[in-house]
Structure formats: C-alpha cells, structure tokens
Amino acid sequence: MPGRRQCGGAERGAPLNARARWDWPSLALALGWIFLYIAVGGGLAYALAHGYTWLGQRDLLPGAVRRTSAWFLPVAGTLPLIAFGFATWLVGARLAGRSWEGLGWRESSPRQLFRGAGVGVGAAVVAVFLTVALGGARVRLIPGGFAHPDVTGPLVLGLLAAALFEELLFRGFPLRALADGIGPWPATLFLGGAFGAAHAWNDHVGVYGILNIALAGVWLSLAFFSGGMGLAWGLHFGWNLGLALLDAPVSGIDLGVPGVSYQWGVHRWLDGGAFGPEGGLVGTIAIALGAVATVGVRVTRSRGWLAA
After folding, report:
1. pLDDT tens digits for 260-279?
2. What is the pLDDT of residue 65?
3. Cα angle, residue 204 at apex, residues 201 and 205 outer, rounded to 5°
4. Banded pLDDT at 308 (limits 50, 70, 90)
5. Is 5 domain-assigned?
6. pLDDT per position as a tens digit, 7-35
7. Looking at the DSSP assignment, which residues form a beta bridge with residue 141?
8. pLDDT in tens, 157-211
9. Could you tell me if residue 199 is inside a domain?
10. Sign of CA dihedral 175, 169, 285, 226
11. Under a CB-based contact definition with an 8 Å cutoff, are residues 175 and 224 in contact?
12. Residue 205 CA: distances (Å) to CA of 250, 275, 278
C-alpha cells in the first residue's frame, strides 16, 4: 500500500468534510485523473472485448460464449471489470497515490457486501410488490426450476461482475477524486446524473427511467461514502438480482429467468412498463426507501461526511 500523502486536496482514506470548498485547481486535477482513468479502463475494455471476439470467430478460443448462452452475461461483465480493476490499480493506487481504503476497499467490505445485497434485494422486492399491489402487474411461478444452478449460477456471477464494473466506473476512484475538488454532495449529484445519462440508450427507456437511475446513482454514492465499495457493490448487485429473479426487466433488459413470469400493468408511469420498475413511481419509492435503510440520519452529518 503506497505511503500516505495529500492528493487532490484531501488525505487519502480520510472522511470527506461536507464543507469542502469548490477548489478550481483541485477540480481540474480531479477531472484530469478521471479522464486518464476512463481512457485506460475504456481502452483496455475495448481491447479485451475485441480480442475475445476475434479469438472466438477464428475458433481459437474453445467454448467461446455466444449471446444465447447463459454464460454470456458473466463474460460480458467480467471483461470490463478486469479493465477498470486494472485502471483502479494503475491510475488510482499507483499514479494518484490513493490508498485502497480511500478507494473504498475496507476491512469490512465482505460484511458490507452481504449487507448491501440484502438491502438491495429487499428494495427490489418492494418495487415489484408495489407494481402488483398498485399497478395490476402479475408475477406467476412456472414449474421448471428457476433455481437450477445452470441458470442461477451464471446469473449471479454475471450480475456480480456487472455491478462491480459499474461501481468502479461511477463510484470508486472517480467519485473520490471529484469529491476532493467540489465536495461530496456536488460530486454525488454530478456522478448520479452521469449514471442516469449512461442508461439513456437502453431499450424502452423514458425520462422517468433516466431520473430514477440517477436517483439510484445518488443512493449508491451515499452507500460508498457510508460503507465503502462493498456496500455500494452489494446494493447494486442485490437490486439487479432481486428484479431478475422475479423476471422484472432490469433497466430495460429482460434476463429471461425461467420458472417465473412477470407481466407489467397498464400504467407505465407507475410500474415502468417494459423498462421495469426503475422506470416508474414504484422505483422512486423503493430507491428512496433503500437509501433511508442504507444511511438513515447520517446524511445530516456535517463532519466526517457519512463515514461509518
């Protein structure tokens, strides 16, 4: 672990002060680091994806996963995860001199991961329950065993990888670096908006869906400052898993889990329609309840911002 030093206006690993000033030099430095981080991670992710495709097309990679395979999601999530994991090490830890604790990886991360997964699944179940109770959606179990390991194994691994990749991209080093320049609240709101905008090209997305995902980004940033990367990762994974196991679309993506059938109701503003609960009022309610369950009254703290 690199030695401790000042970096971007805040000591590595130290709790952020909610009264941090808008420091233009620090902001410029933070944006530079973030640009380098995305360039390294994005470039490597592109190379890995195209390399994997090239090897598969030439039968040089035995068992190359096709899009119709249950293992496509784990592969699709793991390649960019490897890329941004490397970028976190190279740019965040080595070049910018951040401690792993400052990047969100704490001794409590495994415990926080399980805690977050539980809260995330619970919030997703609340969202689907509200679609049924208020919007006329239907959830029906179909004999066939959606719990079969050939289905749930790849699904869990894929959602774990995809959730951590997105946390590294939108929380982790970018959130910590940006918070040094403009303070935790502006950084949280800015990256929450970026998180929502990144989903603007998803299938069946609407304005409400983008706003809800931005709200979820705020929730996950609060979790990062409160419980580190483990908590944010667990919440993200648990939310997606809870929706998927009930066959509800996850940000417009139908994961097609067998053994259960979900049919949305007639009011898209309420249940999100084909985009899933994230696209309607039920998503707003569930995300807000999840945020309260995650940080509660700690959001009002003015010193040692949200650090638990």
Report:
1. 889 999 899 999 999 999 99
2. 74
3. 55
4. very low
5. no
6. 444 444 445 554 445 677 888 999 999 99
7. 260
8. 999 999 999 999 999 999 999 998 888 999 999 999 999 999 999 999 999 999 9
9. yes
10. negative
11. yes
12. 11, 6, 9
Domain count, the chain: 1
Tokens encoding 183:
């303070």
Which residues are within 8 A (CB) of 32 and not within 5 positions of it... i.e. 6 or more apart?
A: none
231, amino acid identity: L
Give Cα separations from 55 to 18, 63, 68, 118 (angstroms).
Answer: 49, 11, 18, 38
Residues of the chain with pLDDT > 90: what percent?
66
Which residue range is the domain that position 105 belongs to?
18-300
Beta bridge partners of 139: 262
CA distances from 175 to 64, 144, 167, 184, 191 (A): 35, 43, 10, 8, 7
* Residue whose pair of structure tokens reads 């993200």 in the numeric block: 236
Q: What are 71's two structure tokens?
A: 């293992």
- Report the 3 state secondary structure along the chain: CCCCCEECCEECCCCCCCCCCCCHHHHHHHHHHHHHHHHHHHHHHHHHHHHHHHHHHCCCCCCCCCCCCCCHHHHHHHHHHHHHHHHHHHHHHHHCCCCCCCCCCCCCHHHHHHHHHHHHHHHHHHHHHHHHHHHCCEEEECCCCCCCHHHHHHHHHHHHHHHHHHHHHHCHHHHHHHHHHHCHHHHHHHHHHHHHHCCCCCCCCCHHHHHHHHHHHHHHHHHHHHHHHHHHHHHHHHHHHHHHHCCCCECCECCCCCCEEEECCCCHHHHCHHHCHHHCHHHHHHHHHHHHHHHHHHHHCCCCCCCC
Q: Is 65 among the domain residues?
A: yes
Please report whether residue 78 resides in a domain: yes
pLDDT of residue 59: 73
